[in-house]
């Protein structure tokens, strides 16, 4: 029998929703501050969460996404911020980014992916060419792809001079399983971990609930607790 994917918070604590309706994530209050380092893997054309982290906390934000459309979106926003304009989202013109130049300077964009190895990999395009997110696992079973550099967290942290990362977001189209296993194998502790399990939307086969549940249970066994969960397998964990 397949496990149910009906996760509930295990710890009661104040949380805050950040980002647009499409790009929203939930983080616990009091665990992110000005001195925090945030790694956000998977950007697409909605970095509202990323921008709000920098604007609310003034913290160091690093975005990782090798997708050309994602990089262009970031560069377009950077130009508008420099001009003092509030740019809207491509898919939702009711939402406009709002961030000061000072806090936008806290955001860095890296056109690489986070993965379990340092190597070049294929990123397969979505079945709808108007969509942005590409997948190493080829969740949507397409043939077209581009190749890009991916790196391990420890490689990235060493290059950027970080001894720890307070928040990690993984919205990486199925690659989250391997990255989670790598993080746990290497004992790279993250204070706040936000994960979207993308097979809910594009399952490779009927056993996707087993893969998701296995990842969640392994995180629990190694000291992570769920503090937020929605109906679409967007989960926020904290390290106990």
How do the strands and helices of this protein lay out in sequence?
Blueprint: E1 15-18, E2 25-28, E3 37-41, H1 48-57, E4 60-64, H2 68-83, E5 88-89, E6 92-96, H3 101-104, E7 107-110, E8 113-114, E9 119-124, E10 145-151, H4 153-160, E11 165-170, H5 176-185, E12 190-196, H6 208-221, E13 224-229, E14 234-239
Parallel strand pairs: 3-4, 3-11, 4-7, 8-10, 11-12
Antiparallel strand pairs: 1-2, 5-6, 9-10, 12-14, 13-14
Could you give a quick summary of the protein structure above?
The protein has 240 residues and is an alpha/beta fold. It is 26% helix and 29% strand. Helix 5 (176-185) packs parallel to helix 6.
Q: What Rg is obtained from the alpha carbons, in whole angstroms?
A: 17 Å
Summarize the biggest pleated sheet.
7 strands, mixed
Mean pLDDT: 95
Helix content: 25-40%
> Looking across the biggest beta sheet, what order are the strands in?
7-4-3-11-12-14-13
Class by helix and strand content? alpha/beta
Q: How widely separated are the two ends?
A: 30 Å
| Low-pLDDT regions | none
- Topology pattern, helix = H, strand = E: EEEHEHEEHEEEEHEHEHEE
What proportion of the residues form beta strands (DSSP E)? 25-35%
Oligomer: single chain
For the secondary structure, the number of strands is: 14
The total count of helices amounts to: 6
Gross morphology: globular
